[in-house]
Amino acid sequence: MSFPKTQSEWRTALDALPSTPEKIPAFFFGHGSPMLIARQVTNSPMLNTIGPEGDLAKFLRDFGPALRAKYKPKGIVVFSAHWETIGVRHVTDYGDRNPLLMDYFGFEPYYYQQTFDSKGNRALAERVVLLYKEAGEEAKLSGVHENRGWDGRTSPPRQGPGFDHGVFVPFKLMFGDKVDDVPIVQVSIERSGNPEENWAVGKALSKLREEGILILAGGLTIHNLHDRKQFSEKSASPNVTMFDQAITVAASKPQLDERKQSLFDLMKHDGFAQAHPSAEHFVPLYVAAGAGEEGGVQVVSAIYSAPTIAFGI
């Protein structure tokens, strides 16, 4: 079984996505790192892979316009590996201007001067909260005067509200520096790392897909900052490369029960621990799969460590 890895292949896959604005698929996508918007390309092998001219950056520049053209979304609900809460979903309610949270440290000033202009929407945020409550899940609005929650909000300059880099960095490539016609709301994932619980996080919002709302869940299928050789397919250990390949195979199972079990079993794979010291970058896959559990699946790109998969096509 082969999956799209080159630009010509993923463009063909994007073209093949059904234009179904009456029921928009939910997507898991690789959100990358701040290196996607690096000022210049260097001779670093890693930056050449994950930087502004790498495959992921090229894909995101193709991905965003295709989503806009095919689905003409009335709003976007996005999940990021970088916003975790326990038991209660937090939903951004930022009004006419979504702030940004530079939730990284040790970078040059350039990275803290980035902009991404977008707006929220109270009605969409309240709809998200209502759907969670109807599903028996707790949820609350999170405003511009609130710290977001768990993920490291303990000291300046990272304390506060705002979209984290798992949202604004890839969105800059996907949609440009300004989105003024489509409101964007971010929702927290479940910090437990439990596949079933994060599947439920997505499933609760599946009705939004029939209401013109695009659901995106961003993470990475390989994320080990303690062993950076795993980020490159050329230097990764065999267990990790086999694990990454197993993800697209599991996601492509045609029957829901088999697909769900195969995706859950990935966390027991021999390569999982090497790929993920902690699970937060992996579980957004379950959020997207839950949101689009009814229907087919299409692997849109199989870029190593950062595939994009459409659920519910």
TrEMBL record:
Cofactors required: Zn(2+)
GO MF entry, a single one: oxidoreductase activity, acting on single donors with incorporation of molecular oxygen, incorporation of two atoms of oxygen
Pfam families attached to this UniProt entry: LigB
Extradiol ring-cleavage dioxygenase class III enzyme subunit B domain: residues covered: 26-304
Coiled-coil intervals: none
Gene3D superfamilies: LigB-like (3.40.830.10)
Keywords: Dioxygenase, Metal-binding, Oxidoreductase, Zinc
Family per similarity comment: Belongs to the DODA-type extradiol aromatic ring-opening dioxygenase family.
Protein name, entry field: Extradiol ring-cleavage dioxygenase class III enzyme subunit B
